[in-house]
Amino acid sequence: MEYSELVMEHFMNPRNVGVIENPDGVGKVGNPVCGDMMEIFIKVKDNHIADIKFRTFGCGAAIATSSIATEMVKGKTLEEAEELSNRAVAEALGGLPPIKMHCSNLAADAIHAAIADYRQRLAITSNG
Amino acid sequence: MEKPKKVIYLDHAATTAVDPRVMEAMLPYWTERYGNASSIYSLGREAARAMEEARKTVADILNCEPKEIIFTSCGSESDNLAVRGVAFAQQHRGKGNHIITSSIEHHAIGHTCEQLEKYFGFEVTYLPVDKYAMVDPEDVRRAIRDDTVLISVMAANNEVGTIQPIAEIGKIAHEHGIPFHTDAVQAGGTLPLNVDELHVDLLSLSAHKFYGPKGVGVLYVRKGTPLLPIQTGGGHERQRRAGTENVAGIVGLATALKLAYDHAEENNARITALRERLIQGVLERIPEVQLTGHPTQRLPNNASFAFKYIEGESILLNLDMLGICASSGSACTSASLEPSHVLLAMGIPAEEAHGSLRLTLGNENTEEDVDYVLEVLPGIVEKLRMMSPLYQGAR
Question: How far is B385 from chain A (nearest CA, A)?
Answer without folding.
Answer: 8
